[in-house]
Design brief:
There is one protein chain. With 222 residues, the protein is an alpha+beta fold. The chain contains five helices and ten strands, in the order ββαβαβββαβαβββα. The strands form five sheets. It has a two-stranded antiparallel ribbon. The protein has a two-stranded antiparallel sheet with strand order 3-8. The longest helix is centred in the N-terminal third of the chain and has 25 residues, at 25-49.
Length: 222
């Protein structure tokens, strides 16, 4: 073999400090493989950094099943707040303004149903987190009130919906918010629900709760 020639290719080149640097076929293929590997890993890292993941649900097909609550079977037992793997729970209370009577005293707001209008703010709340908020939109303290559930405070216990459905207009209910539900293969809430109210339905079919769009129910929650 001629002096300076490598077994797999042309002669080695020499760097400025006199150290030989072989550029044979074997090294070329090795460098090429490393380049492809780095590009592949870089692509994965970029996708993860952009939030692309199965857990985020952004790459799921539109017809994939998701969890929801059967309003006719829900008993507001309180397990939605404690059994969900998300903390706080992905289950939230909502108030359908089309069904709400906009009363001065709301059954889902305070326990004392005979409280005078000027003492309502001092009464014991139904919601342990005080997530049910009220504001007057007509007629002053004896007029009409809007009741909304603040989802950042709501634990999904269902206390407000329980009282509203027992004694009121049944405007309050519980839903599983699709934007924060992890869509687990086995729902921890469904496993302990005493009435079997948690079930799966294709995403394309789950668009309404009580006859109105679900995002309309929770989208405006403060």
């Amino acid at each position: 073999m001629p002096v300076g020639e490598t077994p797999d290719g042309p002669p080695a080149s020499e760097t400025a400090d006199g150290v030989s640097a072989p550029r044979g076929r074997r090294e070329f293929l090795l460098l090429l493989g490393r380049g492809f590997g780095a590009a592949f890993l870089g692509g994965i890292a970029a996708r993860l950094a952009a939030g692309w993941s199965v857990a985020a649900g952004k790459d799921r097909p539109a017809d994939r099943a998701r969890w929801r609550i059967d309003q006719a079977r829900c008993t507001f037992c309180g397990k939605c707040a404690t059994a969900c793997v998300r903390k706080p729970s992905a289950v939230k209370a909502v108030n359908d303004q089309k069904l709400c009577s906009n009363c001065v005293v709301c059954y889902g707001h305070i326990y004392n149903r005979s409280a005078p209008s000027d003492r309502i703010e001092k009464e014991t709340r139904v919601c342990p987190a005080d997530a049910v908020r009220r504001w007057n939109f007509s007629g002053g303290q004896d007029g009409y009130f809007i009741y909304e559930i603040r989802h950042e405070d709501c634990s999904g216990c269902g206390a407000c919906a329980r009282e509203c459905n027992r004694y009121g207009s049944k405007s309050m209910s519980l839903i599983i918010r699709p934007d924060i539900c992890l869509d687990c293969n086995e729902c921890a809430i469904a496993a302990v629900c005493p009435s079997g109210a948690i079930y799966r339905a294709p995403r394309g079919e789950v668009t309404e709760a009580r006859g109105i769009p679900e995002d309309e129910l929770w989208g405006g929650a403060r």
